[in-house]
Amino acid sequence: MMDTSYIVYFLFGNKRKIFGTSIIVVMMLITIFAEQIAPYDPLAMDFKPFLSPSTEHWLGTDNLGQDIYSQLIMSSRTSLSIGLIAATMVVFVGLTFGLIAGYKSGIIENTLMGTTDLFILIPSLPLTIILISYMGPSVYNIIIVITLLSWCGTARIVHSRVLQVKEQSFIESARMMAFSDRHIMFKHILKNTEDVLLARWCLAIVAAMMAEAGLAFLGLGDPFHVSWGGMITDAFSNGGYVRGMWWWYVMPGAMISLVALAFFMLASFDKDHIYVEA
Amino acid sequence: MRVVRFFVIGFLALTIIFILPRIMPGDPIDNLFGENASLLNEDAVDIMYAKYHLDDPLWEQYLAFLKSIFTFDYGYSIISASSVNKLIAQRLPWTLALTIPSLLIGSVIGFYLALYCGTTRKITDKTMTSLSIFMHTMPTFLIAMIFVKALAFDLGLFPLSHNNSGTYSGGWMWYLDSMYHLLLPSIILIIGTVTSYYLTIRNSVLEVKNDDYIFVAESKGLTDEEIRSRHVSRNALPVFLSIFAMGLGGILSGALIIELVFSLNGMGTLLYQAISRQDYPVIQGVFILLTTWVLLMNLVAEFAYGLADPRIGDSHDRGTK
């Protein structure tokens, strides 16, 4: 569906995008080879608790005697996969709603956009907490709940873009040539929403990672899969914070910060405008 | 037409709040007694069910629920033996004392900084933009933790947590003490508000900056200050109003994470505790309040948007006639 040149522009279009792409590539490599990079098992309680950074333990150990550096490396898997999967689902659902609502009109449009408004209006953080605490904090549930509560912004933006594109004359000519609705929707209209979709995808990754970190801070992170947000929470509630072990919570924070920065850089399509929020 | 649409959506949102706790697994009475639930005999369970109207048909419960929305009678907390209204009345002022000043101060500073830096495009713009992006790359609680560590822990400028030190029971010293305790959380909220308003308003300032009428205004010999206040700000106003209304919608629950970091007794902590203890009446009451408030603010936003940008009002009228 997308031209190669467009993808090249999306990834390497300007200095900021090159910077973002290189950070993401490095993070991906860390994620893929996490088991080889991490020196110890992140959940093994083999060492003395509260060790300071040393040559054996680059970032010391936590309250249970687990190696913090290994946790930092392994956490990239949880945080990044939640971000990527949730964001992909968000964009997919938002696109489906926005595309159909924009192309069809009347009752279908009203129902779909009404549903979108409904989800925009419900206070999302409290509802996330309620849903996760009932469903249980597993990575899957976190992804599902984040998707459920954050597709609506994308749907609204895609909808308004489709409404604009629909009025253009090339759509009219396609209709004159008796192309089917499906053909027009997928070949012509979808094509003109791809910059919005890519930007939304980048922002949704960051938003999902932040939401996961927030949930972890509320004690609703997956206990079997450490994430960067979960590490910061551990440091806050298990003694790292009051003991002044700043490396315990600043390092995972720096990782989140780097990834978020990289995706913000990819999300900005021109020189001036910068979007960081949904 | 739009108002009708709003009411339908509001009605659906409230219905979801009614349905949600009832389709979730778990029994409220079992939760109430925890591990002692198995020791209860059948009669006692029946009495509890009758007391909380849990054995009524669903539609009767639903009617009672709808009635409670209009009478503001949310029932009693299961855990703390106090009415939900009373709990909310205790917590609400603390949250508002935190969020309202932060929203007002932060949005005004953010708006003017964006107007000024967006039109001049100098080093100030670069600094503010980088700072704003940086603040958005970190989770709120981490920012709060770093601020507390540096300013309260190491330098001792601010108290670490809680609403007040508890040494004063009333009088102006109590107010001063509480304000001092709320100062650092407010500063963190203000920084968050300023940076997010800055980026949003800056984008809309950049959009109009190169328009012809700005060029005309410049060639008429208007000063930068006049162009900013008369022409550029007028175009940034609708965007400002819409995010401001969203901010107003969030003043009841928006500070949940900050309240938890600082152990402040506000609405956020009330809701969080209620959820972790499965205190249904409190969850329901707080949620009704949050949702109706957000709904109202969105309605206000629609009208304000039309007032600030006459073009929008026109197109809507044309659409309905």
Set down the secondary structure blueprint:
The complex is a heterodimer of chains A (278) and B (321).
Chain A: H1 4-12, H2 15-32, H3 34-37, H4 68-103, H5 107-121, H6 124-135, H7 139-150, H8 152-166, H9 169-176, H10 181-189, H11 194-217, H12 228-237, H13 246-267
Helix pairs in contact in A: 2-4, 2-13, 4-5, 4-7, 4-8, 4-11, 4-13, 5-8, 6-7, 7-11, 11-12, 11-13, 12-13
Chain B: H1 2-23, H2 28-33, H3 42-51, H4 58-71, H5 84-120, H6 123-136, H7 140-154, H8 171-209, H9 212-219, H10 224-249, H11 256-261, H12 267-276, H13 280-308, H14 310-320
Describe the structure.
The complex is a heterodimer of chains A (278) and B (321). Chain A has helices at residues 4-12, 15-32, 34-37, 68-103, 107-121, 124-135, 139-150, 152-166, 169-176, 181-189, 194-217, 228-237, 246-267. By secondary structure, chain A is an all-alpha fold. The longest helix of chain A is centred in the N-terminal third of the chain and has 36 residues, at 68-103. With 321 residues, chain B is an all-alpha fold. In chain B, 77% of the residues lie in helices and 0% in strands. The model of chain B is unreliable at 314-321 (pLDDT under 50). Chains A and B meet through helix 5, helix 6, helix 11, helix 12 and helix 13 of A and helix 1, helix 6, helix 7, helix 8 and helix 11 of B.
Task: Throw out a few tags for this protein.
heterodimer, A: 278 residues, mainly alpha, MetI-like fold, 13 helices, 0% strand, elongated, B: 321 residues, 77% helix, globular, disordered C terminus
